[in-house]
Amino acid sequence: MSEIRNLSPEALWRNFDELTKVPRPSGHMEKVQAFLLDFAKKVGVEARVDEAGNVLMRKPASPGYENRKGVILQAHMDMVPQKSPDSKHNFETDPIETHITDGWVYANNTTLGADDGIGVAAIMGIMEDKTLKHGPIEGLITKDEETGMYGANDLPKGELNGDILMNIDSETWGKFVIGSAGGIDITSTLEYKEMPNDQEAAIKVTLKGLKGGHSGLEINEGRANANKEMVRLVRKAVVELGARLAYWQGGNMRNAIPFKAEVVLALAKDKVAALKEMVEKQRALVENEYKTIEKNVEFFTEEVEKPVALVPAEIQDNLINAIYACHNGIVRMIPVYPHVVETSSNLAIVNINANKADIKILARSSREDMKDYVVNQLKSCFDMAGMKTELSASYGGWDPNPDSEILNLLKKTYKELNGEEAIVQVDHAGLECSIILGKYPHLDVVSLGPTIRSPHTATERFEIATAKPFWDLLIKTLEAIPEK
User: Fold this and answer.
1) pLDDT for 239-248, tens place per residue?
2) Taking the CB of the first residue and of the last residue of the chain, which one, N or C, has fewer CB atoms within 10 A?
3) Is 359 part of a structural domain of the chain?
4) What sequence ranges are listed for the domain Peptidase M20 dimerisation (predicted)?
């Protein structure tokens, strides 16, 4: 038996443990949809999959509570499939293996899926609870949030009946989120014809061991971006050693700071030693620049078989210059919330191989005008390299409502249970609340959750001590929902 099943509250941990056994990486929702429908049938609540692929559960009000406002508990079913370089885990077939270390639940060298498996487990726990006294409750578990919020974007109008939306996808206990940034995917591509390789040697350069992390929640922590650090080395090798680019692969998730990048460079044999020395110097430079942040930097070379073809010189230079010049990180903070990032971009993925370059960026902002600004800034950069830029998966920001009735009830209940005031904040991470509000503007919305750290990385972890107070707050709040 998994050791997390012995933790309290039992309902939350048991359901989360069951969920860890169901493969659910973004883009592969069939198994978890079936799991959730089977769960609903077993506990006797209505459930179905809507036309967008979301699972919707409905639990009627307890006797005498029929006139309470309806509550929608909302989470997403997918998880980010990240793993350590030496892990052989297959996210489409293998269960997540959990362990407890120093008061935290981790997975074994993979993402844990607490983002947002804990939200799903909480909804399951509420749906099966026969003792809870409550008004009408709906559980909305959305599809493919991590890859573009597709479930929320395609949520049909007229599907939900509730008055209050409690999103369970925030990651710091004791903080209630009442606003979040919007975002947009930026994809720049260029097709070209490779040229024969006339160089004498080939070297593969790998940068790995960086922290990576969530490109919204952790973009302000000064973590190194593997693509941005690699381009410094590549440009220097091209300019000083006449190296030629054959291949580049960096990053694998649009919403994660890339922790690894690798390139293959072709060059003259008598320049190989100089390139190896250059990489070692660059490793030392990265360690020095990020010495309080990045503690496991690996930057190294391997001699490899000569590639058959190279990126043409002019295309190569344009791509390198564009990657070097494109903005990555914070653009600016919110003037009225100076501790919160307003606008940012994350150079998430660079793929240059087999006659095509493909660059993916996720830009975020809580202001639509600033989102447009950073999109045009990045598009201008890639336009100069002759690339074609497409925009997709755009979603707006969530405007805060500090006078929210559900927020005030949560704050009151939190203080009664914990003897201190909760913190109310606006997040830079994207939440589905803004999209759902666009379809159901009458909803009173807040986001909450227990403490999760390093989501979207293989060191994702969930703080055990925050589980019970989170659960107690959820139960007490549902019991106290006011009448219509």
Assistant:
1) 999 999 999 9
2) N
3) yes
4) 206-292
Residue 465 token pair: 């001590």
pLDDT of residue 199: 97
DSSP 386: T
In tens, the pLDDT along 361-412 reads 999 999 999 999 999 999 999 999 999 999 998 988 898 898 999 999 999 9
d(CA 63, CA 47): 21
- Residue type present at position 109: N
Q: How confident is the model at residue 2 (pLDDT cuts 50, 70, 90)?
A: confident
In angstroms, rounded to a whole number, what is the distance separating the alpha carbons of residues 348 and 164?
35
Tell me: do 162 and 187 sit in the same domain. Answer: no
31 CB neighbour count, 10 Å cutoff: 14
The pTM of this model reads 0.81
The enclosing domain of 170 has a CATH number of 3.40.630.10
- Is 1 part of a structural domain of the chain? no
Catalytic residues: 78, 145
Give the residue from 347, 368, 395 where a domain finishes.
395
Beta-bridge partners for 182: 365
C-beta neighbour count of 480 within 10 angstroms: 15
Range of the domain at 453: 10-180+398-480
Residues 294 and 403 in one domain: no
- Give the list of residues 6+ apart from residue 72 with CB closer than 8 angstroms, or none: 137, 138, 139, 140, 160, 162, 164, 165, 166, 443
Residues 128 and 165 in one domain: yes
